Amino acid sequence: MQTQAKVVNALTDRSDCLIVTAFGNSQWSPAAASLEAKAGQVATLCKREGFKGKAGETLLFTTPEGTQAKRVLILGLGSAEPTPSSFQNAWSKALDALKNTPVKSLTLDLDGVNVADRDAGWIGRQIAFQLGLGQYRFTRCKSRKPDASPFAPTKLTLGVGKPDVSAARTGLTEGTALANGTNLTRELGDLPGNICTPSYLASEARKLAKGQQKLSAKILDEKQMKELGMGSLLSVSAGSDQPAKLIVMEYKGAAKNKAPVALVGKGITFDTGGISLKPGAGMDEMKYDMCGAASVFGCMRTLLELQPKINVVAVVAASENMPNGNATKPGDIVTSMSGQTIEILNTDAEGRLVLCDALTYVERFKPRAVVDVATLTGACVIALGSHATGLYSNRDELADALLSAGEECGDRAWRMPLWDEYQKQLDSNFADMANIGGREAGSVTAACFLSRFTNKYPWAHLDIAGTAWRSGAAKGATGRPVPLLMHYLLKQSA
Ligand code: BES
Ligand code: MN
Ligand code: ZN
Predict the structure, then answer these.
(1) Is the CB of residue 192 less than 8 Å from the CB of residue 281?
(2) 439 is catalytic
(3) Domain check: are 110 and 197 in the same one?
């Protein structure tokens, strides 16, 4: 999709569809007012159809007068200064109204619209992002194409006031790249466990890096991980016929000596629970247990498209969690790369076992911050549901930066405690720690476990168990928290 931002004249626009806005209470945007002044059609039709300009209301005219555009869509915003969420909602209603139309070139005239507490860059980003997300369909495993294809215009023009043109243009570029990254995350998440194995993720990393100047990919196999002493990670893949992979991608957009931000993703390509086997109902959803890894891939994809001046290291700990004859048993004790020993009391608490070794591994990059992303605990879903990602951090500054990044793009996180009082739930009689902390505060004790491997750098942990995918009829990966992470990374770039 080609995008542009400029000052638009509603009377001479030649697109397949021109969108102008109404603010409710008989208030029109400048563009809608100019069409009305020219041909007198807008007010008459709105009156006839009972269109009031409430937030999210739409009215499509197929034979507009006073403009060169083939169609006009009037979009209600409820106010000239809508809230960010009301604006997002209205834009998605406009896109719904254009489904099943042959519109290929689309102009959205937003001159005179100010989203509360947001700038033109945000508006451009949001417009392109939502449009881009709407293009995603999981069709890889369908032998017949679905009947309804997504609304996919080839050209989008955003009309803004002259001083906002350049910010809006940047926003459109960022929003498009963000949607492409997020859609990659959704695709990887939606792929079934028999296709998306640790080796598949490794090949995906090589594919991303192929021919790229700024991105490299390196894959460590089980032998190399053994030499590094990653006994904890390897205890998870022990019960699977699929070998584990440690996937390392380096994006170098800034000077060599600039310390990188490290992203670490949980890549359990299927979580049966291992010997601590999960119940059967709904177990298919454990193909999503690699969504942390998928979000790291999505970020790398977006970085490649935008080429910002920042260094980012991505480490994905990829494994299956299966119960074959070599599988780890409850009570087994393993030694992590950090030297700390772990008594594995429940083989279903495997995410922390693969992450802890990846978190020790990233020390070698001397990162200025490390953010791990994981569908780590069912307890986080109980605590926060599907609206907020659980955020834990050993530095207030990093926590605040991530919280505000999420707030800004509507991909929100909520900070949870990492108090010392919780740590003793991990005491073990036989090793340095147990891998589970009992029934209480399960998401917190999982984060406490990880915190024992992150003393050497500023660190944050995102528990995305509730936010990474939707269950039910609209089952599928959401692509979260790629928007949050990308907002954070772009703010960090020079
Ligand atoms: N992948 C799961 C966490 C999960 C569960 C995510 C449900 C999304 C929905 C993780 O590996 C797991 O099984 N965690 C256990 C931990 C427990 C054994 C301490 C859990 O949450 O039940
Ligand atoms: Mn598990
Ligand atoms: Zn898991």
Answers:
(1) no
(2) no
(3) no
278, 155: one domain: no
Find where tokens 């990492």 sit.
Answer: 418
* Ligand 1 pocket check for 271: Cβ under 6 Å: yes
Q: Is 154 left (phi over 0), alpha (psi -120 to 50) or beta?
A: alpha
Tell me the C-alpha distance between 238 and 325, whole Å.
Answer: 9
Amino acid at 99: K
Q: Which residues share a beta bridge with 341?
A: 335
Q: In angstroms, rounded to a whole number, what is the distance separating the alpha carbons of residues 422 and 428?
A: 14
Distance 246 CA to ligand 2 centre (A): 19
By residue range, what is the domain housing residue 16?
2-178
- pLDDT tens digits, one per residue of 242-265: 999 999 999 999 999 999 999 999
User: What is the Cα–Cα distance from 286 to 290, expressed in whole angstroms?
Assistant: 8
Edge-to-edge strand list for the sheet holding 245-252: 215-220, 245-252, 311-321, 261-271, 369-374, 459-463, 389-393, 413-415
Residue whose tokens read 């001046």: 309
pTM for this entry: 0.98
pLDDT at 146 over 90: no
185 lies in a domain?
no
Does the beta carbon of 132 lie inside 6 Å of ligand 1? no
